[in-house]
Specification:
This protein is of the alpha+beta class. Helices cover about 20% and strands about 45% of the residues. The protein has helices spanning about 125-130, 130-135, 135-155, 160-165, and strands spanning about 10-15, 20-30, 35-40, 45-50, 55, 60-65, 70-75, 80-90, 95, 100-110, 120, 170, 175-180. It has a 7-stranded mixed barrel with strand order 1-2-3-6-7-8-10. It is globular.
Amino acid sequence: MSAPSAERIEVVLVKAGRTKIRYPAELVSDDGARIVVRAPWAGEGARDFGFVRFEQGDVFTEYYWRDRWYAVKDVRGPGGTLKGWYCDITRPAVRSGVELVVEDLDLDLWVSADGSEILRLDEDEFRESGLAKTDPRAAEEAERALDALELLAREGRFTDLLSQRPVFRIVPGSRAVLTAPGDAPG
């Protein structure tokens, strides 16, 4: 008797109203709030960012939320060694059948495997996108999400996010506030 095949899903990354990339992935889990997929590097050839190189053989375990403004990608080399986490600031993910649609809002964060390198990326693209004028609420959510992810990384609690332990809450009129390890989110 053979093992059941994994459920496939198509990840569709949209940017500025256009499909930026579409790729197949294995659905790892979907609990109604968080969707986890796994996929090999979907780019053509290698891409060297200076702080990390994505290449054939890399495996991305990608975490998307229906109620959060970001996606986190756990990036591992061909041998399974963790390279780090690439975080896309996005609108909340939408799953429709076998498609998972995510709208990229330009901001990104890189966290190296050992946590020594935490880089805010593409802030210039975000400003140039005009989102602050066309959709001020989305721009504010995007900036808050980036701040919250960076705060978690700097506090050494980034992996708590992927384990689904409560890690921060948003206080109206302020940025993210870290919770203590046992606190319930507010």
